Amino acid sequence: MNNIVAIVGRPNVGKSTFFNRLIQRREAIVDSVSGVTRDRNYGKSEWNGKEFSVIDTGGYIKGSDDIFEAEIRKQVELAIDEADVIVFVVDVEEGITPMDEEVAKLLRKITKPVLLAVNKVDNAMREKDAYEFYNLGLGEYFTIAGMNGSGTGELLDKLVEILPEVPSNEEEETLPRFCVVGRPNAGKSSFINALIGEDRYIVTDIAGTTRDAIDTRYTRFGFDFNLVDTAGIRRKAKVKEDLEFYSVMRSVRAIEHSDVCILMIDATRGFESQDQNIFWLAEKNRKGIVILVNKWDLIEKDTMSARDFEKKIRKEIEPFTDVPILFVSALTKQRLLKALEETVNVYENRKQRIATSKFNEHMLTIIENFPPPAIKGKYIKIKYCMQLPTPTPQFVFFANLPQYVKEPYKRFLENKIRENWNFEGVPIDIYIREK
Ligand code: GDP
Ligand code: GDP
């Protein structure tokens, strides 16, 4: 599990420029694997061997020119709740604005680490102009130029130095970890309450190893797993606003900490961009996914059939469509146990290891019959393949000319793997390497 760093500040100070600099190297790799660019406001970064997740809070507001001060304030408050470290970006060209003062006031009150980044310090003259930011009362600041990267190294040195310790994976228990995610009012807490009720004998709240992640162990009807951050979902004050930013900010930690994510959709609203965004977060983190269409009790079955609904969702989640979709009701408890069974199945699918001999036997026959298309008169040969011993399913195919094996053929290989082995709900990676 990663620490979460939130970048806050008013519009146009250079948050997204700085964010892109942080995630650049890694995102390039991820995108070349998946071939798709998605949520541009959330990514992973690494400095001095320490990995952390970064969220550009400004990126979730559209039409940033006329956003209200209240909006920024809410964002900062949420970032304070959910992040481990906050980077507050200000703009030396503009100097201190009233909005900066507002934000600083909020940040002065908290105990979480805050780093003040004075951006657009492109030359030595501006170093002096930066002095005025001492007046924000946040202490030491870092002068940076997000555009060309100057000063960002020092800031990152400090950042990774103050990141809270994260427990190493080996120490974590081996129970499966599931989380329930979704937009506000989708029915997450109703679902969890329906499952665990208030029965103290079956529910034990385990104070998590980290500050906010509180897990609830579920041992009923033969199940045994941890629901991640459940107490958080049940405890947290309801947010009325239905903003993309809220669901992302609130889901990231739980998703990163889980093996399988249960994504709850509100049947009365359909599958919207927020739902899609959370789906992508889970996919990007290579977590197992189960989609539950909740409040199915409210749907007139003659106007909308489950099949139509399912088709629409699959269209929205392309190309990763091999995901279980169930229609449930937290209210009437319809199919809730089925939903848990499906979640356990996805967990098992994600853990499975295919013996190398079996994998070669099956895949090489397929490859022989449908080899990668020759390019520039060169024939591509794949002679050997295997599953890698990684926590999430990854497969490597060794070829004489790996650079000539293109995305469509990789998708073909993935489909063939999915046809023969059950990876439902599980993102998989395909790599072509030189033999
Ligand atoms: P955001 O709204 O806070 O995410 O700000 P952006 O990252 O979109 O940047 C706003 C403007 O500031 C853009 O025109 C950037 O090119 C510019 N900018 C960002 N970083 C720097 C910098 O280090 N120096 C200068 N001079 N301009 C910058
Ligand atoms: P959360 O914000 O995702 O935790 O959503 P809640 O569990 O608080 O539910 C939001 C609202 O939807 C509440 O009024 C629930 O009573 C209602 N609700 C949740 N699940 C169902 C369901 O399956 N059917 C119906 N009819 N209402 C539901």
From TrEMBL:
GO terms for molecular function: GTP binding; ribosome binding. Residues 330-357 form a coiled coil. One of its GO terms (biological process) is ribosome biogenesis. SUPFAM superfamilies: P-loop containing nucleoside triphosphate hydrolases (SSF52540). Pfam families: KH_dom-like, MMR_HSR1. Keywords: Coiled coil, GTP-binding, Nucleotide-binding, Repeat, Ribosome biogenesis. Residues 3-167, 176-351 form the EngA-type G domain. Gene3D superfamilies: 3.30.300.20, P-loop containing nucleotide triphosphate hydrolases. GTP 2 binds at residues 182-189, 229-233, 294-297. GTP 1 binds at residues 9-16, 56-60, 119-122. GTPase that plays an essential role in the late steps of ribosome biogenesis. Associates with the 50S ribosomal subunit. HAMAP family: GTPase_Der. NCBIfam families: GTPase_EngA, small_GTP. This is GTPase Der. It comes from Flavobacterium croceum DSM 17960.
